[in-house]
Amino acid sequence: MGCVAVFAKPPAPGRVKTRLGRVLGHGVAARLARALLQDSLARWQDAGVSVVIATPEPGADHGVAGHVPHVDQGGGSLGARVERVLRRSLREHPWALAVGADAPALPEAAIQRALAELEAGRTVLGPTEDGGFWALGGCRCPEGLLDGVPWSHASTFQRTLERLRAHGMEPAVLPTGWDVDEVSELARLAEAEALAPRSAALAGAILDAGRRR
Questions:
Q1: Distance from first CA to last CA of the chain, Å, rounded?
Q2: pLDDT tens digits for 108-151?
């Protein structure tokens, strides 16, 4: 069985979803971050794989019911942290997948495609609409794999693809996903109740509250 590492910070006000927090209030943004993490974990747990939370604070409360192992991201750039978590997971699992916590509304077909490719020994890379990626994983993770990749940038996916190819790791490109980073994405999230019920309910409540003001 492979391992899915869901990358997330503890959902503390002022430390997560800060762009949303500046508009909605940091307490509301933290509640949304917690719901997104809960829904993301549930999606991968339902898929029957081993799931961990990859966090910069493994001893902190992440607002998750039940026991989900926490692993330390460590320091350095995001690329260094993703590499570290993948290599650690690969010591105990045949493949490892790094995903973000803020893209829970993925089509079921995207998750199943990722798992099928990983079980077949392929590297996978899942792009997002903003130019980033929602998933990266495979059976190996060479040192320096993500060196030079710009993060939170429109070229992140393309540069990651180039780095994989430079290491002889031609990936299976998964269906495109989307992150929840802006207020404009809340309406879309509110419609994803079947895929991300906690996040969708909270997004709907936030929008309703805004309309009543």
A1: 49
A2: 999 999 999 999 999 999 999 999 999 999 999 999 999 999 99
**8 Å CB contact between 71 and 85:** yes
CA pair distance 39, 37, nearest whole angstrom:
5
Q: What is the CATH number of domain 3-179?
A: 3.90.550.10
On whether the CB atoms of residues 44 and 4 are closer than 8 A, the answer is yes
Q: How far apart are CA 92 and CA 87, in angstroms?
A: 9
Q: Is 95 helix (H, G, I), strand (E, B) or coil?
A: coil
Helical segments of the chain, H only? 18-24, 26-46, 78-90, 108-119, 156-166, 186-190, 197-212
The pLDDT tens digits of the residues spanning 165-210 come to 999 999 999 999 999 999 999 999 999 999 999 999 999 999 998 8
- If one counts every other C-beta atom within 10 angstroms of the C-beta of residue 90, the result is 18
- Six token digits for residue 13: 């006000």
